Amino acid sequence: MDGPLLVVCTGNICRSPAAELLLRAGLGDGGPEVVSAGLAARAGEPVAAPVADLLAGAGIDPAGFVARQLQPSMLREARLVLTMTTAQRSAVVGRAPAVVRRTFTLREFSDLARLGADLPLGPDPAGRLAALLAAAPRLRALRTGPREDDVEDPHGRSADVHARSFGRIQEAVGTLLDVLVPSRAHPPSPVAGGPRNWRRTFG
């Protein structure tokens, strides 16, 4: 499936845009498209200021990002759906049962990628992602110990909560990128001009 990688949270102004922009920066022009949306989006709003500051600290300019509401067409077209919590994963599958095999929390899929890093995944990010998806049922059986698959919602909370939430997203994205783009030797480069022309229109 050649659709985008779709990241979902609640308002689409904190967690999912952070993951989207970090993934875009790390995958570069040759990787799968990455988009995001919210289950109850604050449609039309920019990235929340505390998250924008954290992204800037990571070398990413969020200017031009606009939150949008999750639509059924986005789920139909997505090659992979990554949510921020298990409850959101259930909500996504409830809206579109057909996506159950390609819907995970971000931290869950990052852990599966870590477990599958030594599989013969192929040379390019899109192919490696497809191979990970195919292997996901087997990789799930390898997970042991406590599972911390959620990223808490920092919206309206303290700077410490924002930093903790962003750090967990950054860690999970970094692990996933290390598997999808094994040749990357440096952190994601700054993205000039933000995502203004990145976000595709779904019918």
TrEMBL record:
Pfam families, A to Z: LMWPc (PF01451)
Q: Where is the Phosphotyrosine protein phosphatase I domain positioned along the sequence?
A: 5-179
Q: What GO MF annotations does this protein's record show? A: protein tyrosine phosphatase activity
This protein is called Protein-tyrosine phosphatase
Q: Please name the taxonomic classification of the source.
A: Bacteria, Bacillati, Actinomycetota, Actinomycetes, Geodermatophilales
